[in-house]
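[job 4471] stage=fold_predict status=RUNNING
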Amino acid sequence: MTRPFNFSAGPACLPEEVLERAAAEMLDWHGSGMGVMEMSHRGKEFISIYETAEADFRELLAIPANFRILFMQGGGLAENAIVPLNLSGGKPVDFVVTGSWSDKSQKEARKYCEVNIAASSQEGGYTSIPDPSSWKLQSNPAYVHLCTNETINGVEFGLIPDLKSLGSDAPLVIDFSSHVASRTVDWSKVGLAFGGAQKNLGPAGVTIVVIREDLLGSALPICPSAFDYKTVASNSSMYNTPPTYAIYIAGLTFQWLKRQKEGGATGIAAMELRNIAKADLLYKAIDESGFYVNKVNRDCRSRMNVPFMLRDESRNEAFLNGARARGLLQLKGHKSVGGMRASIYNAMPIEGVQALVNYMREFERENA
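[job 4471] inference complete, writing structure tokens
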């Protein structure tokens, strides 16, 4: 039986192969006599799961050796506090606000440091990204923070900006929660990247932080020990009990990603080709319609999160009811934006996007 297509923004759909393998190993992982949820995080069984997951993630995203990979708790929202606790060092921080998540980030950071809004697209309804040449960066901020894909507003940086070309030597911090592993990352431009796993990598519960080693060791005195990046790194993410099962599922997802092939490419490069094709298919259906509209500027539309409106919003509930009846789930837009939102992460097959497009066209024919 074909499963419904789940367009949830997160927690989101997982690859079916991953779920099937996890189910098969639920009671007994590799003959150990234990399920992963029952293992000691310091036992050799779980350590092997952890080390494999870390190595696979490093390989997938081509993370250089001078970056540490941390598996933490608290989600992306907690990292909005944990990052300034570790990196601000009593100095001001620059934020580029391009949607709801970067706005939440700057508000949280104000509890721990002075914040400068270097640029914002709020006035335009978060439908664009301010040109980097217009950013009002400070002369010596502790770091510059971007959300490189805004899950709620559907805005994505096509390229990570090079701060050096803007005259800044500050480290760049990116929240890549909702498009991590959907495309390659130019690590020469990044000092720290963080993302909750529950959108594109696994279940809720684990947050992955990738941090350049020279940025470790500057936490504010008020930073809790379990959130001090240097402490977490020195203890290989085992300072406190990590979210073991979430790490295990993420590790299975990394292995699934490594097996993916598309157009002669493998791994993340294959996923990027697939994600471009999925996004192009959905945006084409929206743009060719007189019934639906996407308000985001075309040069910064997200490949992962596609918000769209019915021009006649009185038909929203009918649209959602019809979608659910056809096995197209979780399409209601975020309450701050309204309308619909289709999150088409790595685990969403192109068949799911095609099924949505077919339904959208059918609904338009019946209701136009």
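[job 4471] summary: The chain has two domains: 17-257, 262-367.
[job 4471] exit 0
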